[in-house]
Write a structure and sequence with these properties.
The complex is a heterodimer of chains A (134) and B (239). By secondary structure, chain A is mainly α. Chain A is 87% helix and 0% strand. Chain A is built from four helices and no strands. The radius of gyration of chain A is 23 Å and the shape is elongated. Chain B has three domains: 1-32; 40-96; 103-222, Protein of unknown function DUF881 (Alpha-Beta Plaits, 2-Layer Sandwich), CATH 3.30.70.1880. Chain B contains six helices and eight strands, in the order αααβαββββββααβ. Chain B has helices spanning 2-31, 40-77, 82-98, 132-144, 189-192, 201-208, and strands at residues 103-113, 149-152, 155-156, 163-166, 169-172, 175-177, 181-186, 211-222. A five-stranded antiparallel β-sheet of chain B has the order 3-2-7-1-8. In chain B, strands 4-5-6 form a three-stranded antiparallel β-sheet, covered by helices on one side. The radius of gyration of chain B is 26 Å and the shape is extended. Classes of the chains: A mainly alpha (134), B alpha+beta (239). The interface between A and B is medium-sized, with 38 and 31 residues.
C-alpha cells in the first residue's frame, strides 16, 4: 500500500517535472539542498513506518523544518564564504544510510523468516508422507 | 487502516514533491550547461558569471519594455501639437542616424568565413582566419562606399563601436562574436558591391584563402544598438 503510493507519487512527479519550467540558476543550489532534505525525510518516514512509531506531526514538521534550516544554512554560508551546506549534506546522507539500514534489516529478517517457514513445512510434509507409506 | 491510508498518502505526496524537485533541478543544470570542475574557485566564478548574465538579461528586458512605453508616451504627448510633432520627427531622425532604432533598406550582405584549405604561407599561417583587422577594413571600405548603417553578426555599428581581438573571437560593442561574420550594410547596392573590385580588400582576403561572399539585397534589416551611448566630457561651445 505504502509502496504503491510512493510509486504513484514518483511517476506523477516525474511527469509533471519533465513539463515544468526551469528555475533561475541563482536558486538551484537552494533547491538542491531542499531535495536532499526531502529525500532524508522520505527515508525517515519509511523507516518509522516499519518501526511502527510513525507520527504525522513529527514527520511533516521534520520535512519542512529540515528543508528550511538547510536552505538558511546555505544562504548563511554564502554570506560568510563558508560551505556550511556541506555539513547539512553530510548529516542528511548519514541519516539516510541509518534509515536505509533499518529498512534493510527489517526486510532481510522478514524474508529469512518466510524461507525458514517454507523449509520447515516441507520437512513436516515429507514426514507425514513417510508415515502414510508405512 | 485509516492511519495507514493517511501515511501512504502523505508519503506519496512527499515523493511527488521530491521527484518534481529533482526533475526541475536536473533540467536547470542541463540548461546552464555548466561542467563541474574540481577547482572550487573556477566553479564559484562560473556561478557568479551565470548569475550576472541572468541579471543582465532581466535588466535588458526591463529596458526594452521601458523604451516601448517611452515611445508610446511620446506619441501621445505630441498629438495635436505641430511644434512638438516636429521635435518628435527630429528625434526619430536622430535615432535613425545614431543607431537607436531598427532600420531597413537596400544594401549588401558580406559573409566572411574561416578558410578550409591548408595555409600555403609559411610566414603567416594564421592568414586563413578572419581577424579583427579584416572585419575593421571591410567596415571601413563599406563606409567609404557610402554605407548608411552597418551591422556585424547583428551588432549595430555605431559611433562608439570598437572592433578588437579577443583570442579566437572578436569583440564588437562589448559582445564576443565568432566566425562566420555576416556584415550587413545599407546603402546603394551598386556602390557597396564595388568592394569586390580587383585590388580591393575582399580580393586580398580571397587570395589568402578566407571564404568571402558578397550578396546584393533589396531589403536588409539592421537591428538597433543594444547598449547606451553615453557622453560625459562633451560640451557645447558657447558663442
Amino acid at each position: 500500500m505504502i509502496f504503491i503510493a510512493i510509486l504513484i507519487g514518483c511517476i506523477l512527479g516525474a511527469i509533471l517535472g519533465l513539463n515544468a519550467p526551469i528555475i533561475s540558476y541563482t536558486y538551484s543550489s537552494y533547491l538542491a539542498i531542499a531535495i536532499i532534505a526531502a529525500l532524508d525525510s522520505v527515508f525517515g518516514g519509511i523507516a518509522s513506518v516499519i518501526k511502527k512509531n510513525f507520527d504525522l506531526k513529527i514527520f511533516i514538521s521534520g520535512f519542512f523544518g529540515n528543508a528550511i534550516l538547510a536552505i538558511l544554512l546555505t544562504i548563511l554560508g554564502q554570506k560568510l564564504n563558508v560551505d556550511i551546506y556541506l555539513a547539512a549534506i553530510v548529516v542528511f546522507v548519514w541519516r539516510m544510510f541509518m534509515n536505509l539500514g533499518t529498512i534493510r534489516r527489517y526486510y532481510v529478517e522478514k524474508w529469512s523468516d518466510i524461507i525458514k517457514e517454507k523449509t520447515s513445512k516441507k520437512d513436516t510434509k515429507t514426514q507425514t508422507e513417510d508415515k502414510v507409506e508405512k | 487502516m485509516t492511519n495507514k491510508k493517511v501515511i501512504s498518502i502523505i508519503l506519496g505526496i512527499m515523493c511527488f514533491a521530491l521527484t518534481l524537485g529533482i526533475c526541475v533541478q536536473v533540467k536547470t543544470i542541463k540548461n546552464t550547461n555548466s561542467t563541474i570542475s574540481q577547482n572550487q574557485e573556477a566553479n564559484e566564478l562560473r556561478d557568479e558569471i551565470l548569475r550576472y548574465k541572468e541579471r543582465y538579461d532581466n535588466r535588458f528586458k526591463e529596458l526594452e519594455e521601458a523604451e516601448k512605453e517611452l515611445e508610446k508616451e511620446r506619441e501621445e504627448a505630441t498629438k495635436n501639437n505641430s511644434e512638438l510633432e516636429q521635435a518628435q520627427q527630429t528625434i526619430t531622425k536622430g535615432n535613425k542616424i545614431t543607431g537607436m532604432t531598427e532600420v531597413t533598406g537596400p544594401g549588401v550582405i558580406i559573409t566572411l568565413t574561416d578558410g578550409k584549405g591548408i595555409s600555403t604561407s609559411t610566414l603567416n599561417p594564421s592568414q586563413l582566419i578572419v581577424h579583427d583587422l579584416d572585419v575593421l577594413s571591410v567596415v571601413n571600405e563599406l563606409i567609404n562606399a557610402g554605407a548608411e548603417a552597418i551591422s556585424i553578426n547583428e551588432q549595430r555599428w555605431v559611433l562608439t563601436t570598437a572592433i578588437s581581438c579577443r583570442g579566437n573571437t572578436i569583440d564588437i560593442n562589448g559582445e564576443r562574436i565568432g566566425a562566420p561574420f555576416v556584415i550587413k550594410a545599407i546603402g546603394l547596392p551598386e556602390y557597396l558591391a564595388g568592394l569586390e573590385r580587383v585590388g580591393g580588400y575582399l580580393e586580398y582576403m580571397k587570395e589568402d584563402g578566407v571564404g568571402v561572399n558578397l550578396e546584393k539585397s533589396n531589403s536588409i534589416t539592421i537591428p538597433k544598438y543594444s547598449g547606451v551611448i553615453k557622453f560625459q566630457y562633451l560640451q557645447n561651445v558657447e558663442e
